[in-house]
Amino acid sequence: MPTVTHILFDCDNTLVLSEDLAFDACAQVMNRVLEAHGVPDRYTGPQLIQDFVGMNFRGMLQALAQTRSLTITPEDEEKYVKEEEDQVIATLLDKAQPCDGCSPELQRLYEEGKYGLAVVSSSALRRVEASVEKVGHDVYFPRGHIFSAATSLPTPTSKPDPAIYKHALEVLGKRPEECVAVEDSKSGTLSAVRAGIPVMGYVGSYVPEKQAEMKQALLAVGAKNVMTDWSEFREKLSEFEEDDAAGKL
């Protein structure tokens, strides 16, 4: 059986506390879309998170168009995607912080050199790169090891589509069982699971009263285990290594 050699991290609210910031900025653009189509309703950042967590903005637009019966032309979609990307990036470069306890663990992984490290995200590549650079994580993920469902694929998509994980595997030259994905959302977990990659869930970025619910949700869609805090990372990773040694991955 192959040995686990690579760890593939989601970015938003897994490595970087970006979801709240990004969704607040995103809501401003989404509300301009609604206004342009004569829809009186307006979103707040938390409402967007509730409806669209784990999706990139293109996926949100397409879901919004379907549920609201809106006609958004390809040209307008590209305009809105670029507008949202610029607004979110400006916000992240100003305010983004790493997830609590994440940076020391990444440093330890980097120094040990046992695993290859990569980021696999639904978000646009410029946004992901801005996030990891802002919090000082760019040293851990060399150029070419950050993958974006919105940017890296011939046809943009969003998790839970497994396309971005399959693309990352192809570029890295890895089989699914040689990797472990770390994900905080149901859509991200499903994306990795559908690509055949074992998943470690992470719920530390959720408010405490939401963590138990999300843990069960991630396990229900295929995560092998779930950590609440980055201090649990090694313990949870060892479970994958034990399964690897036993030929269960």
TrEMBL record:
PANTHER family: 6-PHOSPHOGLUCONATE PHOSPHATASE, HEXITOL PHOSPHATASE B. It comes from the Eukaryota. The keyword Metal-binding applies. SUPFAM superfamilies: HAD-like. Coiled coil: none annotated. The keyword Repressor does not apply. Pfam families: Hydrolase. InterPro entries: Beta-PGM-like (IPR051600), HAD-like_sf (IPR036412), HAD-SF_hydro_IA (IPR006439), HAD_sf (IPR023214), PGP-like_dom2 (IPR023198). Keywords: Carbohydrate metabolism, Hydrolase, Magnesium, Metal-binding. Its cofactor is Mg(2+). This is HAD-superfamily hydrolase. GO terms for molecular function: metal ion binding; phosphatase activity.
